[in-house]
């Protein structure tokens, strides 16, 4: 058998890296940032040593994958703030950011729960970069949504007792629905979001469409059992 050339080795290395990154994205998206590098390696079909040769810690892999994803959420807030109608901008931000977080548990862990950093593998430099990226993104998002909230109240579209600091609280509530019944109704968060948006209006005649049906009693029972660890 002919020896591998440097070009072949580099090609194999690139293929392994691409496989690792794709697998990490899928694993973190479905399982959240609690997932381990061993799980990423198994999903990628490579040895865990191959992952560690590319990324010295889980934090480094998270940073590589998610810093750009944090910026995606920032861009949603930027687009929302630029909309002429502040209520439409607020609805757009709430809906699109909720969709992004509900569909990507890893991103949700960073933006909503902030659970990535306590589970680091001891890489202080990367921890600092991650914390900085999360803090910067959250700061930019808050500045833009705070301006949007004030404009919506001034326009008489948003109830005047709502504050920009209430928005993360509602985000937490809506995302809880994404976790609660993910097996029974992956888009159940749309119902909670719909109820929340109706409650935010200064005035309304009727209510908005919720997008998905309510859970059946059997679905609710299964979700409650899973929540309490009953099998």
TrEMBL record:
InterPro entries: DNA-bd_HTH_TetR-type_CS, Homeodomain-like_sf, HTH-type_TetR-like_transc_reg, HTH_TetR, Tet_transcr_reg_TetR-rel_C_sf, TetR_SbtR-like_C. Gene3D superfamilies: Tetracycline Repressor, domain 2. This is TetR/AcrR family transcriptional regulator. It comes from Rhodococcus tibetensis. It comes from the Bacteria. SUPFAM superfamilies: Homeodomain-like, Tetracyclin repressor-like, C-terminal domain. The keyword Cell inner membrane does not apply. The keyword Transcription regulation applies. PANTHER family: HTH-TYPE TRANSCRIPTIONAL REGULATOR BETI (PTHR30055:SF234), HTH-TYPE TRANSCRIPTIONAL REGULATOR RUTR (PTHR30055). Pfam families: TetR_C_43 (PF21597), TetR_N (PF00440). Residues 14-73 form the HTH tetR-type domain. Residues 36-55 bind DNA. Keywords: DNA-binding, Transcription, Transcription regulation.
């Amino acid at each position: 058998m002919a020896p591998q050339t440097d070009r072949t080795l580099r090609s194999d290395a690139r293929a392994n890296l691409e496989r690792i990154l794709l697998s990490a994205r899928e694993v973190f998206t479905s399982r959240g940032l609690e997932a381990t590098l061993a799980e990423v390696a198994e999903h990628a079909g490579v040895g865990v040593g191959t992952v560690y040769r590319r990324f010295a810690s889980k934090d480094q892999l998270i940073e590589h994958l998610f810093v750009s994803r944090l910026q995606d959420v920032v861009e949603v807030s930027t687009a929302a703030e630029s909309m002429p109608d502040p209520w439409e901008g607020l609805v757009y931000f709430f809906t699109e950011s909720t969709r992004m977080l509900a569909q990507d548990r890893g991103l949700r862990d960073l933006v909503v729960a902030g659970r990535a950093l306590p589970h680091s593998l001891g890489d202080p430099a990367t921890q600092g970069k991650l914390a900085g990226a999360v803090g910067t993104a959250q700061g930019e998002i808050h500045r833009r949504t705070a301006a949007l909230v004030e404009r919506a109240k001034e326009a008489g579209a948003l109830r005047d007792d709502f504050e920009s600091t209430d928005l993360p609280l509602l985000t937490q509530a809506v995302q809880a629905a994404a976790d609660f019944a993910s097996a029974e109704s992956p888009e159940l968060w749309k119902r909670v979001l719909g109820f929340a948006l109706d409650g935010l209006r200064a005035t309304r005649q009727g209510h908005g469409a919720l997008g998905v049906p309510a859970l059946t009693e059997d679905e609710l029972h299964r979700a409650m059992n899973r929540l309490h660890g009953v099998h």
